[in-house]
Amino acid sequence: MVLVDRTSAGQALAARLAFLQEAHPVVLGLPRGGVVVASAIAETLQAPLDVLLVRKISVPGHDELALGAIGEGAVVVGNPEVMRHAQPSPATFERALETARAGLARRAALYRPARRAQPVARRTAVLVDDGIATGATMRAAIRVLHARGAARILVAAPVAAEPALATLTGLADQIVVLEIVKRLPSIGRCYQDFPPVCDADVLGLLRDAALSTPAGG
User: Fold this and answer.
1) What is the DSSP string of the chain?
2) What is the pLDDT, as a whole number, of residue 213?
3) Below-70 pLDDT ranges, the chain
4) What pLDDT is recorded for position 82?
5) What are φ and ψ of residue 118, in 5° steps?
6) Which pLDDT score, from 0 to 100, does residue 76 have?
7) CA-based torsion, 126, 11, 55, 61: positive or negative
8) Cα–Cα distance between 37 and 197 in angstroms, integer?
9) Among residues 64, 130, 176, 181, which one has the fewest Cβ atoms lying within 10 Å of its Cβ?
């Protein structure tokens, strides 16, 4: 399967998630591309849209390789396979971690004024990204939702690598993926149209959601 773009992929996922409509879920996208997919799902399910702020801890000089990820609430998750391969020194890892923390703080300052965090306690949360390559950021995001008291967590993505999904088994209540592949070196290769998503795009989606759905759902 070759996905057309993030919006159409989100619409296809929404069709798979139609059974959730009566549960009145909260849909949370991982910035940035995941928010575009999540927006299409939230619109179809008539659910509130939010971001869940996580940040990849990148291998220095190799932004696509994740040593792990951090999330809101001081969550830190490692990626053992990449850690074994990259073997960063403690000082290198600490620098990468501080870079990720600074990026997470910047995004929080930028995004939260547009859409205050939606309550997820005792609710169904749909956690969305445009692809799951290693699973590190998704694991961090799931931990954040558990800490915030979500009653049920569903992970949704248009495409995911099989090894990454294995790391999520037992962490989420359900995983919905359109296409599972053996390896996912580049998420963009799975789409016909995969333009960069900027902060302004995410802010626009959040502001539109805030206007169409009252805070708190």
Assistant:
1) --B--HHHHHHHHHHHTGGGGGG--EEEEPTTHHHHHHHHHHHHHT--EEE--EEEEEETTEEEEEEEEEETTTEEEE-HHHHHHH---HHHHHHHHHHHHHHHHHHHHHHTTTSPPPP-BTSEEEEE-S-BSSSHHHHHHHHHHHHTTBSEEEEEEEEEEHHHHHHHTTTSSEEEEEEEES--S-GGGGBS------HHHHHHHHHHHHHHS-TT-
2) 63
3) 1, 64, 213-217
4) 79
5) -80, 135
6) 86
7) positive
8) 11
9) 64
Amino acid (1-letter code) at residue 148? R
What pLDDT sits at residue 49? 96
What are the residues facing 175 on neighbouring strands?
A: 155
pLDDT for position 30: 96
Digit-coded pLDDT (tens) for 22-42: 999 999 999 999 999 999 999
CA–CA separation, 95 vs 174, rounded Å? 35
Q: Are 112 and 95 in contact (CB under 8 A)?
A: no
- Dmax (CA) for the chain in angstroms is 49
Tell me how far CA of residue 202 lies from CA of 32, 33, 50, 82, 155, in angstroms: 7, 8, 10, 29, 20
Token pair for 81: 């396979």
Structural domains in the chain, CATH included, are 6-53+119-210 (3.40.50.2020), 56-109 (no CATH)
Rg (CA), the chain: 16
